Amino acid sequence: MAYHPTMSSSPSVSPAHARHRRRRGGIIAATAVLVVLGGGAVAWFAIGRGGSDGDAAAPVVLGSAGRDGVFAFVVTELKCGTKTVGTGTAASTAQGIYCLVGIKVTNRTDTPRTFDGSAQKVFDGTGTEYTSDTSAERQANPFSWTEAIVPSETVAGRLVFDVPAGTKLTEIELHETLLSPGVRMALR
């Protein structure tokens, strides 16, 4: 006759109880990750959003410095009304009119960083958003925004926006990256 022990040295755990413990452990781990990431996101948002006076609600005054992440920005000019940018066969033609926004971008870190012109937006008085026209920007600037900005260097250039004729732009939102919170700056 074969011997079948009925007792073991460790208590038996039912399959349902084991699933419950694994599920509870997974929920605790997921909650911990969300708390850490959520706190980091709040800190990232608060640090990256600051304008010249740290007030995220009010746009930075024209000509003053604002910052998002590692970049400091100064808006130097707004010129609207031109139909083409560039010359010859490489010229870009607007569907409406082009608005060119002169900016200075300063890299505030100790590593080279790239400014992404396609991540920038402008707004009119009704809150309508317009994104930049990167192909027209290549015609409006003597350099490419895709070139890295070295530490402590300031680069001046123009962002180009194709907007309907008669549009009155009021603000620009400048970003370190496509996903950064950005800083709102007045255009008037």
From TrEMBL:
Coiled coil: none
Superkingdom: Bacteria
Gene3D superfamilies attached to this UniProt entry: 2.60.40.1240
Stretches for region Disordered: 1-20
InterPro entries, per database record: DUF4352 (IPR029051), Immunoprotect_excell_Ig-like (IPR029050)
Biased composition (Polar residues): 1-13
Name of the protein in question: DUF4352 domain-containing protein
Organism, scientific name: Paractinoplanes tereljensis
